[in-house]
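Lab notebook, entry 246. We have the chain sequence and a SMILES string for zinc ion, and the next step in the workflow is to get a structural model of the bound complex before anyone spends time on docking refinements. Request logged below.

Task: model protein plus zinc ion, output structure tokens.
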Amino acid sequence: MSLRRLAEVARGALHLLYPNACLICDAPEAGREPYRHGLCSDCLTAVTADPHAQCPKCAATVGPHAETADGCPSCRGRGFAFARAVRLGPYDGRLKDAVLRMKHAAGEGLAELMGRVFVEARGSALKAAAADLVVPVPLHWRRRWARGYNQAEAVAREVAIGLGIECRPGGLRRVKAVTQASQPSAAARRENIRGAFRAARGARFAGRAVLLVDDVMTTGATLDEAARVVRQAGSGSVNVAVLARA
Ligand SMILES: [Zn+2]
Ligand SMILES: [Zn+2]
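Result returned:
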């Protein structure tokens, strides 16, 4: 048994002993109110705090006095296929811990919880996107099979419920299995992801205002490519919502 698997088993046993343990840090007493059920107050505060100024276009952290009218250093001059990105917070600390835990089969409950926290904490920014359809960024079927679920889909489902709009998990398909993390540069990531998505037959994106949902945005290459495909299928505006922005 690998160390990681052993840690997962131990955590499972811990949650049997303390069914109210925090899903991020394992503190024995998590909140009991409906939307925060499963997170201790430290984790809830940490994942929703987001003290940094951010770029209104790509949601990257920027300096407190940065001029961002036409984007930030990481997106200026780069035309994204989506209009704006909304984030719950930076990919750091407890939010990073949460995202990493979501990458295991046992993380589905946490992913749903994070979707509810996202709407609760960033409702006005998400509503400002004026979307009428939520679409999660899909995993390639092989990775989905290995993980047991798609974390972006679990987050998207809850975001859609919170916003009171439709979620269409099968709208986009991932037709190319690629690993972005190992790519040496932003340009390599853009090249690597090209052609990875296709609009599903019967996706019916035409005229819809789409909110694309993913767990993490790093350079934005994956979300840019997904947005390009959705727009090519005839959608109206495309905006992006991510739990964490690296
Ligand atoms: Zn906690
Ligand atoms: Zn930016």
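Notes for the group: The radius of gyration is 18 Å. Worth checking against the assay data. Residues 108-128 form the longest helix (21 residues).
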